[in-house]
Amino acid sequence: MQYDLNELRAYFGRDHYAELTGIEIDSAADDAVVCSMKIVPERHHNGANNVQGGALFTLCDLTFAVHSNLAIARGDDVGVTVAQSVSISYLKASRGSVLYAKSEQMHRGRNVSVFRVTITDDLGVTIATALCNGAQTSVKPPR
Question: What CATH number does residue 130 fall under?
């Protein structure tokens, strides 16, 4: 199923920190979500002139959040899924100008889910990979 990107962007636009980083939701389907972030050195670089790990983590986290909460976008009466734990491995510094995060669902149980998020750049280099464990809460999303 494809999802209305404008609705997803409006809902996740309430994530003010992710919005400040410039993350965009590029596509959303049941099998994968792709988000991107244009690298702005003044905003994203650390003292070593590389993309700061926190920026990469935020890209990963928002991509996971979108994918793990697609049931809400479908209109299902479920609680919000939040990150229970995330293990991220930073593999290489990016020399590109855009980062892409793609998520894939590995497991979806009644209350626990597991997603893999891979971050690549516009040069095709894999920058980071993360394993995200989600917990579905009883908290209903704001409408």
Answer: 3.10.129.10
Which pLDDT belongs to residue 80?
Answer: 94
Containing domain of residue 126, as a range?
A: 5-136
Tell me whether residue 10 is exposed, middle or buried, using C-beta atoms within 10 angstroms of its C-beta: 0 to 12, 13 to 18, 19 or more. exposed
> What does pTM read for this prediction?
0.94
142 within a domain of the structure (yes/no): no
The answer to whether 54 and 44 have CB atoms below 8 angstroms apart is no
Helical H runs in 50-126? 53-68, 70-74
- Whether residue 79 lies inside any domain: the answer is yes
